[in-house]
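> run fold Aspartate-semialdehyde dehydrogenase
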Amino acid sequence: MKVAVVGATGLVGSEILTVLAERNFPVTELIPVASEKSKGKEIEFKGKKYKVVTPAEAIAMKPQVALFSAGGDTSTEFAPLYAEAGITVVDNSSAWRMDPTKKLVVPEVNGDVLTIEDKIIANPNCSTIQMVVVLKPLHQQYKIKRVVVSTYQSVTGTGVKAVTQLMDERAGKEGEKAYPYPIDLNVIPHIDVFQENGYTKEEMKMIKETNKIMGDDSIRVTATTVRIPVMGGHSESVNIEFEHDFDVAHVRRLLAEQEGVIVVDDPANLKYPMPKDAHGKDEVLVGRIRRDESQDKTLNLWVVADNLRKGAATNAVQIAELLNKRGMI
Ligand SMILES: NC(=O)c1ccc[n+]([C@@H]2O[C@H](COP(=O)([O-])OP(=O)(O)OC[C@H]3O[C@@H](n4cnc5c(N)ncnc54)[C@H](OP(=O)(O)O)[C@@H]3O)[C@@H](O)[C@H]2O)c1
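> ok
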């Protein structure tokens, strides 16, 4: 299969290349795509070198599927042109996620919504993906009423420029800034732009995308999203109030049985999920599983995943695998 990776020189794009190779996605020809400034650069994939082309040039090369991670503007401009040319797009940006005509997909949660008609498929926000994978089996069993989530997000979620800012600050070097404040030895309670209601766009994404993916607008969600000087993955403190009561041991079992989830929950032996452990993994790690003793039928969890993997690249490749398996590409 001819596969285009749009944004191949970026953090998510390079992770997509790794995941495609690792999972043996049947790529017969790779088309690495980036901006005009990277045109002609060589990208290695499975021992072969490919030259980077621009998004417009890639359309003429007729890939069957294009995995986009080149920002919202590139997706808004080019995804419809790819779709018109018969190329199925899996898009990592936020451009199409809340469009009612587009599916927002996490394969383990709502992969069944995909049909042959879907030509632009949205990959959810990284913080949302890792949370809904954990919420799904719990909602099925106990019906979720409300979720309160606070995030501790890795600088890799902002892209190459943010990783460089953190490294420059550590080395005492001046350089380009991705954030309005120093990130090293700091915590910034601000991810994406502020909205009129005082929330950030990242927080509103977590709220709206959760309802769309879970297919249930009755789940109330509130979020505070925070950037921390960490690489390797995003962490989340998730407080969940249910309609029905639960047994903590049963919750642990449900989570252990959920596809894509690993339970790491052994406080006696100091075992709990951390970004260092999630780094490079495709699964979502969950631990600190305990009852919220301040309120009935309420649970506390700590959820960690590699935002570049399950939060972006792995989820996008899993969508492509699903489309391939069902003969849709
Ligand atoms: N990082 C995450 O955890 C994460 C998670 C989920 C979704 N996403 C989304 O994925 C996208 C990329 O994120 P990232 O972290 O990989 O950013 P990044 O490291 O800054 O990479 C951006 C990529 O987009 C390409 N690009 C930029 N402008 C372009 C244009 N006009 N035409 C073609 N290509 C262009 C860049 O190519 P050049 O090298 O040529 O500039 C580069 O390959 C964003 O939409 C982001 O919201 C990121």
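The chain is about 35% helix and 20% strand.
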